[in-house]
Amino acid sequence: MHAPTLPPLPAPLRQAWAEHGSAKRSLDLVGALALLALLSLPLALLALALVPSGHPFVRELRLGRAGRPFRTWRFRAEGDRVAAALDLCALAGLPQLLNVVRGEMSLVGPCPQARTEHPERLLVRPGMTGLWQVSARSDLPWEEMSLLDRHYVESHWLGMDLAILAQTPRAALRLRRGRQA
């Protein structure tokens, strides 16, 4: 996989992101480790419940910050009722907490993709949740999702990340209700 050429960052933006980066990484580590500690038993039970239908995890190749390829962790959300419930509740991506701990992803950022026509997305780590996910989930056309990702890349700060994290459970419930209808 070839990484796209990234646009140069203006000096003030580079300095602001460097200062923000350590606080964001600290939030990512503390948040991901706390969630893994809290959810380790339920995640292990879910993995065991998925074993009869095959391997419980899917590893997908994605582009990370600066275009570095990595493999995301996800529950296999296809097949039996357990997998369907995971998908319905938007929980299939919880194993990506491992990617956050490893520094390949962030709790908040653009959705990880295998390739992109928008290299500015690669200026930040991809996230488990992001601005477009809490704005309207999958109801938005692709062009609007890209605009929200670009807005996040250009103007994210720790307060924005905290607001997105606070809105994520509600957005996941909204997605669940929409799929049940």
Automatic annotation (TrEMBL):
Residues 24-173 form the Bacterial sugar transferase domain. Keywords: Membrane, Transferase, Transmembrane, Transmembrane helix. This is Sugar transferase. The chain crosses the membrane at residues 29-51. GO terms for molecular function: transferase activity. The keyword rRNA-binding does not apply. It comes from the Bacteria. The lineage of its organism: Bacteria, Bacillati, Actinomycetota, Actinomycetes, Kitasatosporales. Belongs to the bacterial sugar transferase family. The keyword Hydrolase does not apply. PANTHER family: COLANIC BIOSYNTHESIS UDP-GLUCOSE LIPID CARRIER TRANSFERASE, SLL5057 PROTEIN.
